[in-house]
Design goal:
The chain is mainly alpha-helical. Helix 1 packs antiparallel against helix 2 and helix 2 packs antiparallel against helix 3.
Length: about 130
């Protein structure tokens, strides 16, 4: 793995994580897509031999061949990731048509539970 590939994977992971932590559904969906692409690149670069040939050739050493399993896994992950992003986009569009915005609001019961003080009970047992 070269420095440029590692840098690209790191940038995709960091931008994807940054976008997932926002309140806007479109940014969350874009972040999930970027995280999926970063994982796909990581699998491809970690499963390949540097300067390895992907196809069997005559007179080549079998140790120089690139493993085809990560390529098949990434191809499957691309299809599944595209389906997930399409489904999430349809849900975001539905939320947009109902509410008129795509901001994810906090749940009021979660805020209430978070505001309660932590209680340390022993439940009748000796400590």
């Amino acid at each position: 793995m070269s420095i440029a590939q590692a840098g690209l994977i790191a940038v995709l992971f960091s931008v994807g994580t940054f976008l997932v932590l926002h309140r806007s559904l479109t940014r969350i969906i874009l972040g999930i897509g970027l995280l999926g692409n970063a994982v796909n690149l990581l699998i491809l670069t970690s499963g390949s031999v540097p300067d390895g040939v992907p196809i069997l050739g005559t007179g080549s050493d079998p140790a120089d061949f690139t493993d085809p399993v990560p390529q098949a896994l990434v191809l499957t992950a691309i299809v599944i990731g595209l389906a997930i992003v399409a489904f999430l986009l349809s849900m975001a569009y539905r939320s947009w048509t109902i509410d008129g915005n795509d901001v994810v609001e906090d749940d009021l019961s979660d805020r209430r539970i978070a505001a309660e003080p932590d209680v340390d009970e022993d439940f009748g047992e000796e400590t």
